[in-house]
């Protein structure tokens, strides 16, 4: 074969998914370990890659799609380091330190950029020039890919902290974000929904109204993404998006908010082909991590 | 000398600024013509470049920073064509048709991308990796440059049509945008200010309150740009920004809205070095157009 091997990590707030893959994408070994503290989780990660290396050969590069905030600027001296995360013990932890022993190049990006990259490469974003992947779950965040490379400024984006217009008569809930109260994450994340209604969105009383309300906030984010990035397609994933009727509500309300201002065939048919569900389901993150590993190879 | 000559056009809704420049940026000839209808304005543009060419030599490339909406995708068959502009006669007009006789490559971008590029090259955005330039004037729009190239998705951005949160008790004005009523352009553009108060922002009664209100909307746009692009700096220009106290109000309210969530030295000192006025004043557009011409040369 001679094909190079990639160590791929999807680092989430509750679990790490680890895989050894060929650069073609075939996964040779795979496991998951709980996210506790770096000393424990990083050790388990190293052990998996040690064993996988013993069985399959040396790792040529690592690709990591991680929760954050984390430094994803390859030019930064702190590249790969968790910054101000509230998760106990993780601020200052660095993937490059944990994996230095393997002597392989490491590419680190955010979980949502990784998912965007995975969906762009082999999921619902194939063929897009610019693709936005948003997760509506425990948190809210958006990753953007253009021509196969994730986008960033001096840091990764933080779309979940945009404040949407509100109608307090309709939704008096004050919001749950410790920084902004009623930003998108404070109003429409899973924890905000549970806090407001004591149930998940698919089990709340008066479900149609609740879906329409949460849909209005997500539609605002969708419209902001259109106006500030003009993606070829928007993917919305994450646990909250499983609520029946939600994606249709987002399409309908986003179209209403844009009000015909953006004229483009991509947006025809009620945004049916423009705002879509993920194609890879739970595999978007690890697929993106493998792709990041491929980019670390310079391939 | 042997330096190549660039034909530069800053195409605005009321006037075209035309220049013949060396690729070093030195301007050899310059004029302005009113924006009426394409047959007249394009003819005057051609005549200027004909005369300039006669006096100084052939044009090696054109750089155009234009009002829109306009197709700025170099891969599109309609590149350089005005699309759905409400300006009578301009939909379908194309710079490449108007300038074909010169046989030189043409780069077309938006007015705000041109201004961003000019400020990045030789104004208040020098040294930035990612730079956002926003104009608050007759319209509201933002151009973004990363490493000297303007950013776009399937089309140019439309930041002016984001809808900010509102307090209707404080500002009952319904908004002036024909598409969205109370989007940013509908609330905070020069025409919206004139319509709401019958005066420009520096001459309105109760000026401090008015500046704070308009500043709150612009601060929302600034925060959205931070959260969705993480620029190294935000420049705010355009006629409305001349109102005394406005930029300080935008800094103060943007900082309050971000609420300490983005921790970075760029944002220290009350955003004093982060949200700034243009460095080139009225010359940003034509400077950017010259830079676009340089890019058309492949230099």
Kindly list the characteristics that best describe this protein.
Nucleotidyltransferase, domain 5, alpha/beta, 5-stranded mixed beta sheet, globular, 19% strand, 2 domains, 299 residues, homodimer
Descriptive overview:
2 copies of one chain form a homodimer. Chain A is of the alpha/beta class and 299 residues long. Chain A folds into 2 domains: 5-111 and 282-297, 2-Layer Sandwich (Nucleotidyltransferase, domain 5), CATH 3.30.420; 124-278, Nucleotidyltransferase, domain 5, CATH 3.30.420. Chain A contains 8 helices and 10 strands. The model of chain A has no long low-confidence stretch (mean pLDDT 96). The A-B interface holds A 83-84, 129-130, 142, 146, 152-159, 161-166, 179-180, 220, 223-232, 257-264, 266 and B 83-84, 129-130, 142, 146, 152-159, 161-166, 179-180, 220, 223-232, 257-264, 266.
């Amino acid at each position: 074969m001679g094909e190079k091997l990639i160590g791929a990590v999807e680092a989430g707030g509750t679990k790490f998914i680890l895989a050894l893959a060929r650069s073609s994408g075939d996964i040779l070994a795979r496991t998951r370990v709980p996210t506790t503290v770096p000393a424990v989780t990083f050790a388990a990660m190293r052990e998996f890659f040690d064993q996988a290396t013993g069985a399959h050969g040396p790792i040529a590069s690592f690709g990591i799609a991680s929760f954050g905030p984390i430094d994803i600027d390859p030019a930064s001296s702190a590249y790969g380091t968790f910054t101000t995360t509230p998760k106990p013990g993780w601020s200052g932890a660095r993937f490059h330190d944990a994996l230095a022993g393997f002597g392989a190049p490491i590419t680190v990006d955010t979980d949502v950029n990784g998912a965007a990259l995975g969906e762009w490469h082999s999921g619902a974003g194939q063929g897009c020039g610019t693709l936005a992947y948003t997760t509506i779950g425990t948190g809210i965040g958006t990753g953007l890919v253009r021509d196969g490379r994730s986008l960033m400024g001096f840091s990764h984006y933080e779309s979940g902290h945009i404040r949407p217009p509100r109608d307090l008569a309709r939704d008096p809930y004050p919001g749950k974000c410790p920084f902004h109260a009623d930003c998108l994450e404070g109003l429409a994340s899973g924890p905000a929904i549970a806090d407001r209604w004591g149930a998940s969105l698919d089990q709340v009383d008066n479900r149609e109204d609740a879906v329409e309300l949460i849909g209005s906030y997500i539609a605002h984010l969708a419209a902001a993404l259109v106006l500030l990035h003009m993606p070829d397609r928007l993917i919305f994933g994450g646990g909250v998006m499983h609520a029946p009727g939600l994606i249709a509500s987002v399409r309908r309300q986003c179209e209403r908010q844009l009000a015909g201002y953006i004229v483009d065939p991509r947006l025809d048919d009620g945004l049916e082909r423009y705002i879509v569900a993920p194609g890879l389901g739970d595999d978007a993150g690890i697929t993106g991590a493998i792709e990041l590993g491929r980019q670390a190879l310079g391939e």
